[in-house]
Amino acid sequence: MTFRPLTDGYAVAPQITPEDLAALRAAGFTTIIDNRPDGEIPAALHAAGMRRAAEAEGFTFVENPVVGGAITLENVHRQREAIDAATGPVLAYCASGNRSSVVWALANAGRMPTDDLIALPARHGYQLEGFRREIDRLAQQGT
C-alpha cells in the first residue's frame, strides 16, 4: 500500500484494504476518508465493511463517494468537514488517489493559494490544472 502526502496532515492513496490499516495506524493517520463509490469495487471493499474494520482499529471513518467527472459541492463540503474535524493526519483514498486530490483541492479553495493546491498533487502525478477555474471560483465565493 502506497500513500502520497500532499501536506503534513493529508495524504491520498489508491484503494486500501483492511490489511493496510495497521500500517496506516503506524504511519500516524487518525482519519480515513473513503472517496470511492461502492459500485466501482468488489463487495469485500465496500464502505460498510471498511468502516467496521477501520473503526475497530480506532480510526474515524468518513464516507464521501466521489464520482469521477461529477464532483458535487456536497462532496467538497463533506471533505472539508472531515479534514477540519480530524484529530490528526488524514488519509483519503479512491481508485488512484486522483479524485481524493481533486476534492481536497476544492475543499481548500481560499485557504491555500490556488497554485499550491495544484502544485502539491502534481508532485505525485495528479494533474489538477483543469480545476484552476473551479478552485478560484470557490475561493472567491468563500465556499
UniProtKB/TrEMBL annotation:
Top-level taxon of origin: Bacteria
Beta-lactamase hydrolase-like protein phosphatase-like domain sequence ranges: 3-110
Pfam families, sorted: BLH_phosphatase
Gene Ontology MF term list: hydrolase activity
InterPro entries, A to Z: BLH_phosphatase-like, Prot-tyrosine_phosphatase-like
Protein name: Uncharacterized protein (TIGR01244 family)
Phylogenetic classification of the source organism: Bacteria, Pseudomonadati, Pseudomonadota, Alphaproteobacteria, Rhodobacterales
